[in-house]
Amino acid sequence: MADPWLVVGLGNPGPGYAGNRHNVGQMVTAELAARSGTAFGSDRSRAKVADVRLGTLPGGLPGPRVLLAQPTTYMNVSGGPVAALLRYHRLSPERLVVVHDELDVPFGDVRLKAGGGEGGHNGLRSISQAIGTREYLRVRVGIGRPPGRTDPADFVLSDFSTVERKELAWLVDAAADAVEMLVTQGLAAAQQRFHSP
């Protein structure tokens, strides 16, 4: 029996942050939980967790077991809950997928990668420090660069624009599809689909 995946959606807690660009990772994990008809429950690791099966394997078999997690801490200390969940479930970082907003990817695009730098993303930096490696999978949800001289920190902590909100459900859906494909078919297959022009 294969180990489950841990899929973490990054964001900040509370209704005041819910619509922020920085919270798109949590929007994606909420969509995945909704698809499986599973609610998030509280967990002693300072995260909300939903235990689901994602996607379908060849032959129509149910997809792999996935622990969807939303840290209930602030973004810049996401690493503690993620490390606690990995320890508790005895999972290696290779089974970790982090879904997060990405300034360096145009709004509406989804990119996947394994390892690499954090690109100034405080949530990723906290996770890398807490688990002692950068070698985990990322689903990068494009939010684009801030307009004009807008401070990137202010940009990520503001809500999506009216125009973007019209496309947001589609983007969240695509990112959720990317997570499903990643855990059922692997990184290369998911990259081929989502990185193609």
Computed structural class: alpha/beta
The third-level CATH topology is: Rossmann fold
How many domains is the backbone divided into? Answer: 1
In the CATH hierarchy, the architecture is 3-Layer(aba) Sandwich
Oligomeric composition of the shown chains = single chain
How much of the residues is beta strand, in percent? 15-25%
Terminal CA distance reads 36 Å
Nearest-integer average pLDDT:
94
Task: Describe the sheet with the most strands.
Answer: 7 strands, mixed
Q: What would you report as the Rg, rounded to the nearest angstrom?
A: 16 Å
Q: Which residues sit in consecutive blocks of at least 5 with pLDDT less than 50?
A: none
The share of residues in helices is: 25-40%
* Shape estimate: globular
The CATH class name reads: Alpha Beta
Note the total helix count: 6
User: H/E order of the elements?
Assistant: EHEEEHEEHEHHH
- Under CATH, the homologous superfamily reads Peptidyl-tRNA hydrolase
- Widest β-sheet, arrangement of strands: 2-3-4-1-5-7-6
The counted number of beta strands is 7
Organism: Actinotalea lenta
Function: Hydrolyzes ribosome-free peptidyl-tRNAs (with 1 or more amino acids incorporated), which drop off the ribosome during protein synthesis, or as a result of ribosome stalling.
Subunit structure: Monomer.
InterPro entries: Pept_tRNA_hydro (IPR001328), Pept_tRNA_hydro_CS (IPR018171), Pept_tRNA_hydro_sf (IPR036416)
